[in-house]
Amino acid sequence: MNRVNLAGWVVVLCVLGIMLVGCSPLSPRPDPSRFYVLTSVAEDQDAIAADKLEVTLGIGPITMAPYLDRASLVTRVGPNQVEFSQIDRWAEPLKAHFTRIQVENLQLLLGTQRIHNHPWFSSTKLDYSVEITVVRFESDRTGSAHLLAHWSIKDGNGERLESRESTIDEASGANTRDASVAALSRAAAALSSEIASAIRQLRQSM
User: Fold this and answer.
1) Distance CA 7, CA 166 (A)
2) Which pTM does this prediction carry?
3) Residue 115 near residue 103 (C-beta atoms within 8 A)
4) What is the rounded CA–CA span in Å between residue 55 and residue 12?
5) Residue 173 has what pLDDT?
6) Of 17, 94, 141, 180, which alpha carbon lies 20 to 30 A from 2's?
7) Has residue 18 got a pLDDT over 70?
8) CA 35, CA 92: separation in Å to the nearest integer?
C-alpha cells in the first residue's frame, strides 16, 4: 500500500471514529435543566400601595427548612414523601431568592424603599424587623402551591410585637411547571401581604 492510499485510509478511520464517538452513550448530552424564578407583585397594580408608609424595615433572618434550601424544585407526592426534580431548578439559591422577593413585595405593598436585608449595620435605625421561618414551600401533584411559614415582627429595639403562622394554598390552574411556579409566586406574595397588613396595623396603633 503506497503512502497516498495509507493517508486516505487514516482520514477515513478518523472520520468513522468521530462518528462513532458522537453516537456513543458516553458522548456529551444536552443539559435538559430548566431554571425558574419567582415573580413579585409588581405586575398586580391593585397590590401596589396607594398610600406610602414611611417606615424603615429590616427583613431577616429568613430560614428555610433544609429540604427546601436546594436547587431542585420540590413536589409533595404524599403526606410523608417529596420528590426533587432532576431537571427543574431554581435559578438562584432559594433562600436568597425568597428573601429578595419578600423585599420587592414589601417595598410595593408598603410604599417604602427603606428596607434592609439581614444582617444590617448595628447603627441602622429600624422601625420594625421581620423574621420568617419557611416550613413548607412546594407544589403538589396537581401543580398547586403550598406555603407554611412562621413569622414575627419586632420593634426597633428588638422587642417582639407580633408572632404568627401563615398557611397559604394557591391553585395553579394547570398541571405544568410554569403554572406551579406562578402559584408559588402568588403564595409568596400572599405572605408579603399578611406581613404588610400587620405592619400597617401596628403603625396605626401607635
Assistant:
1) 74
2) 0.82
3) yes
4) 75
5) 87
6) 17
7) no
8) 9
